[in-house]
Request: fold
Amino acid sequence: MSTGTDIMQIPANPFPFTFEVATTALVIIDMQRDFIEPGGFGETLGNNVALLAAIVPASQAVLAAWRTAGGLVVHTREAHEADLSDCPPAKRERGNPSLRIGDEGPMGRILVKGEPGNQIIAELAPLAGEIVIDKPGKGAFYATPLSSLLQQAGIKTLLFMGVTTEVCVQTSMREANDRGYDCLLLEDCTESYFPHFKAAALEMMSAQGAIVGWTAPSAPVLAALAQAAGAQPH
Reply:
C-alpha cells in the first residue's frame, strides 16, 4: 500500500491515489443531527435519514485512524446566523418543507448556529483543536475561512466524507478542485437520501481521469494508515 515512510498510494477510481498525512486533511461534511437523526430538517423534507445514518460506523473508523495518524481534521456544519442575515430568501423559500430554515423544530431552530440540531452527531463530535467550519452555503469554501486555514497548515490533499454526496460534498469537492487540491471521496463514508444520486455523483467526479477527484472505499485508506503505523490492518 505504501510507497515510502510517509507517502501512501492506494487503489482508487479511476487510478491509484497518492497522499501524505502531513499534507492532507480529512474533511467531514455536515454530519449534523438535523440531517442524520430522526426529527431533524432532513426528515421534515420527507427523507429517510436511516440511509445517512448507515455511514456513521465507517466514518467513525476513518476518523479514529486519522486522529491516531496525527492528520488534520476539518468538520463542517451548514449553519446560519440567528437573524438569518446570511440565508438568502432563494434558499429559505426553496421547496415545500413542513419546516423551513430558522423555524422551530424538534431539535431547535432549523440550521441555526448553536441550536441542538445544528450540532455534529455525537459519534463524530470534534475534539479540541480540530477545525470546525460553519458554512452558509453548500460548499465548504464559500464565505468561510477554510481556504486560508488549509494554506496555513500546508495542506495539498483532501479526503472527503459526509453528506449529502450530490449536494454539499460534491460542491465542496468541486470548490477544492478549482483551488488546486487533489481530492479523494470515501465511497462508504458518504451518502445521499437518493442512492442513485450518490452513484451518479461518484461517477461524475471520477470521470475523465479524475476530473474533480478520486473515489475509493475506506478499507484501503485504513490499511495504508495501519501499515504506516507499523500495525496490521484489522
